Amino acid sequence: MTVFEKLLQIKKKKGAGYFVLIDPDKQDIKEAIKLAKNCRKAGVDALLIGGSLLFSHIFDELVQVVKSECDLPTIIFPGGTRQISPFADAILFLSLVSGRNPNNLIGEQVIAAPEIKSMGLEAISTAYMFVESGNITSAQFLSDTRPLPREKPDIAMAHALAAEYLGMKMVYLEAGSGAKFSVPDNLIKALAGYISIPIIVGGGIKTPEEARSKVEAGASFIVTGNVIERNRNHNLLKAFADAIHS
Fold it and tell me: Which DSSP state fits 131?
């Protein structure tokens, strides 16, 4: 069974899945292992590893060690072609369809594809869509793209449908790391009623209640990062997991 098939099973069984993002620049290997183990105990469904930048040199080692210490699916959420590792279970093969920068639509993907194939790494084709979040996020700045307007769901709907017609397996709605506002519920609801592929929602989700509202709006998977990095404890992780799975 592929990782993507396992994710679909999680959604079918639990109603929605919960991913936690581990950023190599925000913890050392020892801290990442502890976080991964806490995620496993709390009921998190999968780990995403990656970040907008990569200041450290531990990416490959971190993926390998986390994978060896925790049996949760370990999926790379790449901020660039440097963030690829054969030790992961899969990689989100992202195309930034909300932007018009060709390098992020296809350029980086052409460079990465042969390396991913040579590693035997499962690639999950994912439409990456930035949504306006009240401030300029790192991903938005580095990609040199404008986010989708949060008050115009129809624009996001058209982008997501185009991604589905292009054969992409999932849509990732991203407010961005440290976003002031998360992706609006009405925008998620509009997409969920318009496309048939799973929707991942991340960025700016600060409470379990907010995460639950995204699921009720139609999100298939919820991602948290900063809020967990600031409060590394089992109780908060479990509260998020329980809210998302309820």
Answer: B
Per-residue tokens: 163: 């991604």
**Degrees to nearest 5, angle at CA 229 with 8 and 52:** 70
Q: H or E stretch including 42?
A: helix 29-42
Token digits of residue 57: 């040199």
**18 vs 9: CA distance, rounded Å:** 13
Q: Are 192 and 165 in contact (CB under 8 A)?
A: no
- Report the domain count for the chain: 1
In contact, 125 and 93? CB cutoff 8 Å = yes
Instruction: Return the CATH number at 189.
Output: 3.20.20.390
Determine the structural domain holding residue 144 and report its residue range.
Answer: 3-245
Per-residue pLDDT reduced to its tens digit, 80-133:
999 999 999 999 999 999 999 999 999 999 999 999 999 999 999 999 999 999
d(CA 137, CA 225): 14
Q: Which of 145, 118, 225 is nearest to 179 (CA)?
A: 225
Cross-strand pairs, 48: 21, 75
Position 126: which residue type? T
Which residues contact residue 109 at a Cβ distance below 8 angstroms, ignoring those fewer than 6 apart?
A: 93, 94, 95
Return the SS3 of 59.
helix
What's the predicted TM-score (pTM) here?
0.96
Backbone phi and psi for residue 65, each to the nearest 5 degrees, phi listed first:
-70, -45
Q: Tell me which amino acid residue 112 is.
A: A
Place of tokens 């098939």: 5
Q: Which SS3 state, helix, strand or coil, does residue 48 take?
A: strand
* Residues pairing with 125 in the sheet: 93
Please list the alpha-helical segments (H only) found in 99-152.
102, 108-119, 138-143
